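Sanity check. The docking grid for D-xylitol-5-phosphate depends on where the pocket ends up, so I'm generating a full predicted complex first rather than guessing from homology. Inputs follow.
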Amino acid sequence: MLNPVLIAPSILSADFARLGEEIEAIDAAGADWIHCDVMDGHFVPNISFGPDVIKAIRPRSKKVFDVHLMIAPVDAYLEAFAKAGSDIITIHAEAGQHLDRSLQLIRSLGKRAGVTICPSTPENVIEYVLDRLDLILVMTVNPGFGGQSFILSQLEKIRRIRAMIGDRPIHLEVDGGVNPETAALAVAAGADVLVAGSAVFRGGTGSAYRTNIFALRTAAANTVEA
Ligand code: DX5
Ligand code: ZN
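Predicted complex below; grid placement will be based on this.
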């Protein structure tokens, strides 16, 4: 890989009663980005948090806030997530009819734009929006919950998207069931950002988070590109 692999802990696995402290703990433990999973109980069968929570935790870290919107419709809410302090806003290709328009809207708000696709969605849906993207997120579980198992069929999709990206400055992120073992597979296939919820927050202390992030980083660094 040309760039070092980035680790983005998903705060869905944090202790929500102490969310501000948890953000500070993963920041101190070496997180590169803070991954925020927004769920609406409609696009996905779970509800998490919205822009006001992101706004409240934003001052707790200077790191990149990587906001993954699992909501439909999405356009009407983009401004609120931009104002809340998101740095990257990622939307699902399956969440609306006009992906190109939504991506333009994110960039017009001054934010980096990402698109994500569920495990059953083929990668060709992003072929004609590549030049509007700063990030592509491959879901390696069906979105909605932490703690699920990595779906191995997505490795081929990661390889194909890495080839589609070519020399464009687009991050290729993987989310769902990432642990040191699957991290190595994802990076070998071409991923350069790893989201991990349960694999980072396991242990519940700052020192556990540091150990967990280090384990992911080590697995990623020791990967031989496939
Ligand atoms: C799933 C979310 C993920 C989730 C990952 O819908 O997008 O970010 O928190 O959790 P783990 O790493 O436990 O699979
Ligand atoms: Zn996510």
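Relevant for the grid: Residues 11 and 100 are 28 Å apart (CA to CA).
Also worth noting: The two ends are 11 Å apart (CA to CA).
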